[in-house]
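I keep forgetting this: the sequence line spells out the residues, with the fold written below as integer tokens. I include a record here:
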Amino acid sequence: MTIEKAIFQADELKPNQVAKAQKIDWLSHLDRRVFKEVISAHVPDGNTPQAFTPYDQDTPADTELLAKAPYDDIYPYFLSMQIDLANLEYDKYNNSMLLFTDAFGQFARAYHREHRFKQEANALKF
């Protein structure tokens, strides 16, 4: 999923007045978390980014986000959650948070199943 598609899907699901720059910042925050908590804990392969470069207004809209299908629904869920929080709509925020948390957990569990942890790789060297 691209930055542009994540923002489009969130806006379709939840019309809002939040600036695009803010949404890009939120996506950057989420992918920083995806990289730090999930991806960097595993042995890299040929498709693994070596570092995370934050997104900003100058980042191309067609930039691919880190979580791939079928787990890329974390992005519109995360944006919806942040929009609800920004609008002080706490009941909606709680519902959006549950959707995001479940989707993020599914992504993380799948990534852990499909990739070897760095600690496991180091243990095999002995």
